[in-house]
Amino acid sequence: MTTSGNSPKILVTGGAGFIGSHTVVSLVNAGFEPIIVDDFSNSERSALDGLRAILGRDVTCYSVNCNDAAAMEDIFSREAPVGVIHFAAYKAVGESVAQPLKYYRNNLDSLLLLLELMPKYKVSNLVFSSSCTVYGQPEHLPVTEQTPRLPAQSPYGNTKAIGEDIIRDAVRAQIPVNAMALRYFNPIGAHPSAEIGELPLGVPANLVPFITQTAAGIRTSLTVYGNDYNTPDGTCIRDYIDVMDLADAHVQALKKLSEATTGYSYDVINIGTGRGETVLNVIKTFEQETGVKVNYVIGPRRPGDVEQVYADVTKANQELGWTARRSLGESLRDAWRWQQKIK
């Protein structure tokens, strides 16, 4: 699979990461030419091999830190992109609590640099990787884009809220950028080829890689934090979205931004399935889909955990023409195939 030399180039910061690498595939499938910028501080170079296997060719990749102003300016000058998808950020909640300044400097400085370089090189379209963490524990479910944001539970979450505010204020100040912040819910799964997937460094912070590592015998057991919440089975509820659906949403967001004909705009859109699943139901579904038992224990509630959150995705459906298509079972089968490959 190839794209022509005339394909519009999209700068994908953090493009070797979990969501970024899958978005690279969706971009190529949609006729774009992705240009990856990744310093591999939280990703593996093997993702580039996986992309080559899927796409049948190499993808241009710069091994650069997105805070390196000279290197980033050189990339803008050399590649002349028409848009940017900004994934690159530190994302470990616990580490952000212990090292807040590291997170604020990395996550915010990289965004500020992009917003300075984009007008200089006449790049007008920006898709920003945000998060449903900005909603905290909402009073009403499902959450819409009008649901009030609540104070972040971690410096990591705060960098997403501040990032949204920086973009909003820049657009209000007439910086020539059309921007969209996509508030992700809980990405899971892997590419169906099992050539790319989630590669957590160290102990996984997310549920599904912990399930697959436990099923594979890498972890002895999975702890379910709390079973006394006000939910059908007492465990927390989240909105789990397949990473390929999430990747496709970025392509639709770029297309929407490129259609803008008047002025400059900023918008936020929820990207989820619109359904909530309990932790125990995810485990049960994994066991049903794979035939593999998961050794889990019930532990105490974890401080800071939100009881339940899931998206209203009406805006994404209507304004992006996008909807989540892959089932929970499909996502878990793909995640398990990926785990078996990397085991």
List the helices and strands and how they pair.
Layout lengths: L8 E5 L4 H12 L3 E5 L8 H10 L5 E2 L6 H11 L3 E4 L6 H6 L1 H21 L4 E7 L23 H18 L5 E7 L1 E3 L18 H9 L6 E4 L11 E2 L1 E3 H16 L7 E6 L5 E2 H12 L5 E4 L14 H7 L7 H15 L1
Parallel strand pairs: 1-2, 1-4, 2-3, 4-5, 5-6, 6-11, 7-10, 8-13
Antiparallel strand pairs: 9-12
Helix pairs in contact: 1-2, 1-8, 3-5, 5-6, 7-11, 9-11
Task: Describe this structure as you would to a colleague.
Helix 1 packs across helix 8 (243-258). Helix content is 40%, strand content 16%. By secondary structure, it is an alpha/beta fold. It is built from eleven helices and 13 strands. The model has no long low-confidence stretch (mean pLDDT 95). The chain has helices at residues 18-29, 46-55, 69-79, 93-98, 100-120, 155-172, 207-215, 243-258, 279-290, 314-320, 328-342; strands spanning 9-13, 33-37, 61-62, 83-86, 125-131, 178-184, 186-188, 222-225, 237-238, 240-242, 266-271, 277-278, 296-299. The chain has a domain at 9-186 and 242-272 and 312-324: NAD(P)-binding Rossmann-like Domain (Rossmann fold, 3-Layer(aba) Sandwich).
